[in-house]
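ingest -> validate -> predict -> emit
validate: passed (alphabet ok, no gaps, 347 aa)
predict: started
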Amino acid sequence: MCWDDNESLATAWNDDNIAALELCATDACDSTFSGQVTSDYNFDNLVSTCGASGTITVTYTIADANNNTTELVATLTIADTVAPTPTTDIEESLLANCESVPEVPTIEFTDNCSSSVNVVFEETSSFDESNPSDYEIVRTWTVNDDCDNSATYTQTISVTLNDFITTLNERACSDDGTIDLNDYLENDQVDGTWTITQGNANLDESTFNPENVELGNYIFSYTSANNGCLNTTEVVIEIHDECIVLPCGKDDVVISKVVTPNGDAQNEFFTITGVETCGFVVDLKIFNRWGAKIYENSNYQNNWNGTSHKSSVGGADKVPNGTYYYIINLKNSGLAPIAKAFYVGSK
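emit:
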């Protein structure tokens, strides 16, 4: 074995040997041994093999009263058989979330016979970016001393994988051109792939072309690994057609020719359609065949169903069946007012 103070160990061994020889030595001519036991012990004679280990050979001389002597030789071997040990405890098993994995601890090692300790640290992770799930981190300290005594100390961390999701909301017109989804990523998001999680569309790597797709919401997702966790960017894009300028000429205006407010859901209202997205304001005036104005609205919303001013048709709430005339002014259109006849009936 190897002690912290090998010289004290060797000195005590030598003293014990001398005491034993003095106790057991005998002399054929003297029933009572009264001689002397000496040794050439000197700790400086230790032959080192590694570290503080080594061997020391000592010659013992036994002399009787007449100075007759006998010599004995003994060898002390000081062997280092113990590997270095840590000065602090190493937690063998830990639990952690991916964003809070503890730092590698600073571990010092000591050895009872060697002045230097060689430490090799290794860390491995079972995290698989292609198939992410909970994983393990294994930390290993392999230590050896000058005498090649070796030991391995291990710390295993069971890591719970978390996915940190950032959701972005955007609107885009179907006629605005292609959209590069990579513009929504942070600089450290790499090695991921865009996928469509909602909506019937196609992607060319990171490029989305909204032309010719149905209007509505499309959701795109991009997941990448970041320091043992997952970062997901989710982009919700509402595709609309507000930027599309539709033809808004006189020929696009569709005006009711007949109004039959009889409750059958057919031609119930006087309607002006075809220009709903043109930004026009409809100014409507309706007259009977004698030129009396029976209805007027400067912001008409397709909601006239034959009602009239009582002064224009007596006491009735509805105009009588017959031919009527309208003047329509489409404000902001640049078009001339439109005037024409139409029929109001009960069938």
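The chain has two helices and 24 strands.
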